[in-house]
Amino acid sequence: MFFRPSGTAGAGASAYAQYRAKLAEGxxxxxxxxxxxxxxxAIAVWWLWNxxxxxxxxxxxxxxxxxxxxxxxxxxxxxxxxAIGERRTARMLRPLGRHGYTVLHDRALPSGRANVxxxxxxxxxxxxxxxxxxxxxxxxxxxxxxVRVGGASGGQIVRPVLYEAGRVADTLTRELxxxxxxxxxxxxxxxxxxxxxxxxxxxxxxxRASQVRGWITRQPATLSAAEIAEVSATxxxxxxxxxx
Length: 244
Fold this sequence. Notes:
single chain, alpha+beta, three-stranded antiparallel β-sheet, 7 helices, disordered N terminus
Protein backbone atom coordinates (compact mmCIF):
# COMPACT_ATOMS: atom_id res chain seq x y z
CA MET A 1 0.00 0.00 0.00
CA PHE A 2 1.15 3.56 -0.73
CA PHE A 3 0.90 6.50 1.60
CA ARG A 4 1.11 10.16 0.70
CA PRO A 5 3.51 11.95 3.01
CA SER A 6 3.05 15.67 3.52
CA GLY A 7 4.70 17.71 0.76
CA THR A 8 4.62 14.94 -1.85
CA ALA A 9 0.86 14.80 -2.51
CA GLY A 10 0.22 13.61 -6.04
CA ALA A 11 3.74 12.31 -6.70
CA GLY A 12 3.54 8.97 -8.50
CA ALA A 13 -0.27 9.02 -8.53
CA SER A 14 -0.66 8.17 -12.20
CA ALA A 15 2.02 5.46 -12.08
CA TYR A 16 0.32 3.95 -9.03
CA ALA A 17 -3.04 4.07 -10.80
CA GLN A 18 -1.50 2.19 -13.74
CA TYR A 19 -0.03 -0.33 -11.30
CA ARG A 20 -3.46 -0.98 -9.78
CA ALA A 21 -5.08 -1.26 -13.21
CA LYS A 22 -2.45 -3.72 -14.48
CA LEU A 23 -2.71 -5.71 -11.28
CA ALA A 24 -6.49 -5.97 -11.67
CA GLU A 25 -6.29 -7.19 -15.29
CA GLY A 26 -7.26 -10.88 -15.43
CA UNK A 27 -7.46 -11.12 -11.64
CA UNK A 28 -10.61 -13.30 -11.68
CA UNK A 29 -9.06 -15.75 -14.13
CA UNK A 30 -5.78 -15.89 -12.17
CA UNK A 31 -7.61 -16.56 -8.92
CA UNK A 32 -9.75 -19.28 -10.51
CA UNK A 33 -6.68 -21.02 -11.96
CA UNK A 34 -4.85 -20.76 -8.63
CA UNK A 35 -7.85 -22.15 -6.73
CA UNK A 36 -8.10 -25.08 -9.18
CA UNK A 37 -4.38 -25.80 -8.90
CA UNK A 38 -4.50 -25.72 -5.10
CA UNK A 39 -7.62 -27.89 -4.95
CA UNK A 40 -6.28 -30.56 -7.32
CA UNK A 41 -2.94 -30.69 -5.48
CA ALA A 42 -4.62 -30.95 -2.08
CA ILE A 43 -7.00 -33.74 -3.17
CA ALA A 44 -4.17 -35.73 -4.73
CA VAL A 45 -2.00 -35.47 -1.60
CA TRP A 46 -4.95 -36.20 0.71
CA TRP A 47 -5.74 -39.31 -1.32
CA LEU A 48 -2.13 -40.54 -1.14
CA TRP A 49 -1.23 -39.42 2.40
CA ASN A 50 -3.40 -37.49 4.86
CA UNK A 51 -5.23 -34.18 5.27
CA UNK A 52 -2.51 -32.28 7.29
CA UNK A 53 -0.03 -32.96 4.52
CA UNK A 54 -2.65 -31.98 1.93
CA UNK A 55 -3.21 -28.67 3.75
CA UNK A 56 0.51 -27.95 3.82
CA UNK A 57 0.86 -28.73 0.12
CA UNK A 58 -2.12 -26.47 -0.69
CA UNK A 59 -0.47 -23.55 1.10
CA UNK A 60 2.87 -24.15 -0.62
CA UNK A 61 1.30 -24.49 -4.06
CA UNK A 62 -0.83 -21.37 -3.64
CA UNK A 63 2.15 -19.32 -2.44
CA UNK A 64 4.42 -20.58 -5.21
CA UNK A 65 1.83 -19.77 -7.87
CA UNK A 66 1.35 -16.25 -6.47
CA UNK A 67 5.10 -15.54 -6.51
CA UNK A 68 5.52 -17.04 -9.98
CA UNK A 69 2.74 -14.95 -11.53
CA UNK A 70 3.93 -11.79 -9.76
CA UNK A 71 7.43 -12.20 -11.19
CA UNK A 72 6.03 -12.76 -14.66
CA UNK A 73 3.76 -9.73 -14.43
CA UNK A 74 6.52 -7.29 -15.45
CA UNK A 75 4.13 -4.42 -16.26
CA UNK A 76 2.82 -4.44 -12.70
CA UNK A 77 6.28 -4.30 -11.16
CA UNK A 78 7.43 -1.59 -13.60
CA UNK A 79 4.57 0.79 -12.79
CA UNK A 80 4.90 0.18 -9.05
CA UNK A 81 8.63 0.81 -9.19
CA UNK A 82 8.03 4.01 -11.14
CA ALA A 83 5.57 5.26 -8.52
CA ILE A 84 8.05 4.52 -5.72
CA GLY A 85 10.78 6.43 -7.57
CA GLU A 86 8.55 9.48 -8.07
CA ARG A 87 7.69 9.53 -4.36
CA ARG A 88 11.38 9.43 -3.47
CA THR A 89 12.20 12.27 -5.86
CA ALA A 90 9.32 14.29 -4.43
CA ARG A 91 10.74 13.95 -0.92
CA MET A 92 14.14 15.10 -2.16
CA LEU A 93 12.63 18.16 -3.86
CA ARG A 94 10.41 19.09 -0.92
CA PRO A 95 12.97 21.43 0.79
CA LEU A 96 12.85 23.71 -2.26
CA GLY A 97 9.52 25.00 -0.96
CA ARG A 98 11.33 26.67 1.95
CA HIS A 99 13.39 28.68 -0.53
CA GLY A 100 10.56 30.17 -2.54
CA TYR A 101 10.21 27.43 -5.15
CA THR A 102 6.91 25.94 -6.28
CA VAL A 103 7.09 22.16 -6.69
CA LEU A 104 4.21 20.38 -8.45
CA HIS A 105 3.96 16.63 -8.98
CA ASP A 106 2.28 14.43 -11.59
CA ARG A 107 0.75 17.16 -13.73
CA ALA A 108 -1.25 16.54 -16.89
CA LEU A 109 -0.34 18.20 -20.17
CA PRO A 110 -3.11 20.15 -21.94
CA SER A 111 -3.76 17.29 -24.37
CA GLY A 112 -2.67 13.71 -24.84
CA ARG A 113 -1.89 11.11 -22.19
CA ALA A 114 1.61 12.22 -21.20
CA ASN A 115 2.26 13.62 -17.75
CA VAL A 116 5.01 15.59 -16.03
CA UNK A 117 6.54 13.80 -13.05
CA UNK A 118 7.72 16.97 -11.30
CA UNK A 119 7.52 20.66 -12.23
CA UNK A 120 9.78 23.07 -10.33
CA UNK A 121 9.38 26.85 -10.57
CA UNK A 122 11.69 29.26 -8.76
CA UNK A 123 14.26 32.03 -9.06
CA UNK A 124 16.58 29.84 -11.16
CA UNK A 125 13.84 29.09 -13.71
CA UNK A 126 11.32 26.42 -14.65
CA UNK A 127 12.32 22.76 -14.67
CA UNK A 128 10.61 19.55 -15.72
CA UNK A 129 12.10 16.66 -13.72
CA UNK A 130 11.57 13.15 -15.03
CA UNK A 131 12.17 10.31 -12.54
CA UNK A 132 13.83 7.04 -13.58
CA UNK A 133 13.90 4.26 -10.99
CA UNK A 134 16.32 1.74 -12.48
CA UNK A 135 17.69 -1.45 -10.93
CA UNK A 136 21.19 -1.41 -9.46
CA UNK A 137 22.61 -3.55 -12.23
CA UNK A 138 21.94 -0.85 -14.81
CA UNK A 139 25.01 1.26 -15.58
CA UNK A 140 25.34 4.69 -17.16
CA UNK A 141 28.32 4.77 -19.51
CA UNK A 142 29.67 7.95 -21.07
CA UNK A 143 31.92 7.85 -24.13
CA UNK A 144 32.86 11.32 -25.28
CA UNK A 145 29.57 13.14 -25.85
CA UNK A 146 27.46 10.00 -26.06
CA VAL A 147 25.68 8.34 -23.15
CA ARG A 148 24.23 4.85 -22.85
CA VAL A 149 22.24 3.29 -20.04
CA GLY A 150 22.06 -0.47 -20.36
CA GLY A 151 21.02 -1.16 -23.93
CA ALA A 152 19.39 2.25 -24.48
CA SER A 153 20.99 5.36 -25.89
CA GLY A 154 20.85 8.63 -24.00
CA GLY A 155 18.71 10.10 -26.77
CA GLN A 156 16.06 7.43 -26.27
CA ILE A 157 16.01 8.00 -22.53
CA VAL A 158 15.58 11.78 -22.63
CA ARG A 159 13.12 11.92 -25.54
CA PRO A 160 10.02 11.90 -23.28
CA VAL A 161 11.28 14.64 -20.94
CA LEU A 162 12.29 16.81 -23.91
CA TYR A 163 8.78 16.46 -25.27
CA GLU A 164 7.19 17.25 -21.90
CA ALA A 165 9.42 20.30 -21.32
CA GLY A 166 8.58 21.57 -24.80
CA ARG A 167 4.84 21.20 -24.21
CA VAL A 168 5.04 22.96 -20.85
CA ALA A 169 7.09 25.79 -22.39
CA ASP A 170 4.60 26.22 -25.25
CA THR A 171 1.64 26.23 -22.85
CA LEU A 172 3.12 28.81 -20.46
CA THR A 173 4.50 31.00 -23.28
CA ARG A 174 1.17 31.11 -25.09
CA GLU A 175 -0.77 31.96 -21.95
CA LEU A 176 1.65 34.55 -20.51
CA UNK A 177 2.46 36.21 -23.82
CA UNK A 178 6.21 36.00 -23.34
CA UNK A 179 8.78 33.30 -23.82
CA UNK A 180 9.13 30.88 -20.90
CA UNK A 181 12.17 28.61 -20.98
CA UNK A 182 11.64 25.17 -19.42
CA UNK A 183 14.70 23.07 -18.62
CA UNK A 184 14.40 19.24 -18.73
CA UNK A 185 16.25 17.16 -16.12
CA UNK A 186 16.35 13.40 -15.44
CA UNK A 187 16.48 12.23 -11.80
CA UNK A 188 17.92 8.72 -11.55
CA UNK A 189 17.46 6.22 -8.73
CA UNK A 190 19.31 2.94 -8.46
CA UNK A 191 21.63 2.87 -11.45
CA UNK A 192 25.42 2.97 -11.30
CA UNK A 193 26.34 6.53 -12.34
CA UNK A 194 29.53 8.61 -12.51
CA UNK A 195 30.12 10.72 -9.42
CA UNK A 196 31.94 13.73 -10.82
CA UNK A 197 30.99 15.32 -14.15
CA UNK A 198 27.35 15.72 -15.08
CA UNK A 199 26.34 13.29 -17.81
CA UNK A 200 24.17 14.84 -20.54
CA UNK A 201 22.19 13.35 -23.41
CA UNK A 202 20.86 15.72 -26.09
CA UNK A 203 21.72 18.52 -23.67
CA UNK A 204 19.61 17.04 -20.86
CA UNK A 205 21.41 16.38 -17.53
CA UNK A 206 21.07 12.87 -16.11
CA UNK A 207 21.64 13.25 -12.38
CA ARG A 208 21.42 11.10 -9.31
CA ALA A 209 18.05 11.98 -7.78
CA SER A 210 19.84 13.22 -4.65
CA GLN A 211 21.76 15.76 -6.77
CA VAL A 212 18.81 17.35 -8.55
CA ARG A 213 17.78 19.81 -5.84
CA GLY A 214 21.30 21.22 -5.47
CA TRP A 215 21.77 21.38 -9.24
CA ILE A 216 18.58 23.40 -9.64
CA THR A 217 19.50 25.91 -6.93
CA ARG A 218 22.99 26.44 -8.41
CA GLN A 219 21.64 27.61 -11.78
CA PRO A 220 21.68 31.39 -12.54
CA ALA A 221 18.70 33.39 -11.27
CA THR A 222 16.27 34.21 -14.08
CA LEU A 223 12.89 34.91 -12.45
CA SER A 224 11.74 37.59 -10.01
CA ALA A 225 9.39 36.86 -7.12
CA ALA A 226 6.48 38.32 -9.10
CA GLU A 227 7.32 36.18 -12.14
CA ILE A 228 7.58 33.06 -9.97
CA ALA A 229 4.10 33.73 -8.57
CA GLU A 230 2.64 34.38 -12.04
CA VAL A 231 4.20 31.32 -13.67
CA SER A 232 3.26 29.12 -10.71
CA ALA A 233 -0.39 30.23 -10.76
CA THR A 234 -0.58 29.67 -14.52
CA UNK A 235 1.01 26.22 -14.27
CA UNK A 236 -1.39 25.15 -11.52
CA UNK A 237 -4.35 26.26 -13.64
CA UNK A 238 -3.31 24.88 -17.03
CA UNK A 239 -1.44 21.77 -15.88
CA UNK A 240 -3.82 20.12 -13.38
CA UNK A 241 -3.06 16.99 -11.35
CA UNK A 242 -3.03 13.97 -13.65
CA UNK A 243 -5.08 11.97 -11.13
CA UNK A 244 -7.79 13.96 -9.35
